[in-house]
């Protein structure tokens, strides 16, 4: 009698255990009904249930119609994109500091250093306020397609009448972090540059400050409207624009003789800094295009960086208008 009772108790306990494990497993493996549209998802609640289809909270994006937090480490290309967007206002600051001052006095170096310090401080603060907060790193969601940047265009319509609004930052945080950086750039510029301009360089930085009040908001608009296009095309834009500005810089010298160009660009510190700056931009563009996936193949491409400068120096004499024969009609 006792063995039968023991066997009965053991059988019941085993049956209860199997049923409970099956229930837990079933609850954990529940897959909600798919949502319409690429960017609509359901928020999973603490009790395991799912909400209605809609936009995922900030810092999340849908994965199989379930909102998942953005916890990935940004790939190299994303960091290069953020670096490009961070460099853009700094280069514009330096350009307008020189452009708005006809006399290239040594005091302008203070303004250049100030612009660099403001941009560096803005970058550090931007990383610290981003997730994970207080660390010089970011968590992100990987960019999968161009439409990730323009989720507002992918809101699904039910029966062509009712729109489900699922607009969100699917490329978190690449869209908003750039705008936060530009905001910090503007704040730090207004805090430091006017004082430095008035006290150290006799007001020579005033016009460049006014210029920044125009080009920084313009950069925000470009990021808001063309952020996705810039993400995919910035390496080529960087290479092309830097080549054009390098040619303009070299063409600005009155004497286009090769010896004079070499002397002017390699012995004058300001001109040498401009030249090396262009080479660094060329390098950045090549690294962004190749991502150095195959170092043995892509590494030697960096040796081509000085080639445009060398080409200009060797061919400048052939484009000198004084060497053209004027034919009278």
From TrEMBL:
Annotated GO MF terms: ubiquitin protein ligase binding
User: What InterPro entries is this protein classified in?
Assistant: JAMP
Identify the keywords attached in UniProt to this record, alphabetized: Membrane, Signal, Transmembrane, Transmembrane helix
Name the residues that span the membrane: 79-97, 109-129, 174-196, 208-226, 232-251, 272-290, 296-314
The region annotated as signal peptide is: 1-28
Per the UniProt entry, what are the Gene Ontology biological process annotations, in alphabetical order? ERAD pathway; response to unfolded protein
Domain of life of the organism in this record?
Eukaryota
Q: One matching Pfam family, short form?
A: JAMP
Any one annotated GO CC term: membrane
Q: What is this protein called?
A: JNK1/MAPK8-associated membrane protein
Q: What organism is listed for this UniProt entry? A: Lingula anatina
Q: Which gene encodes it?
A: LOC106170726
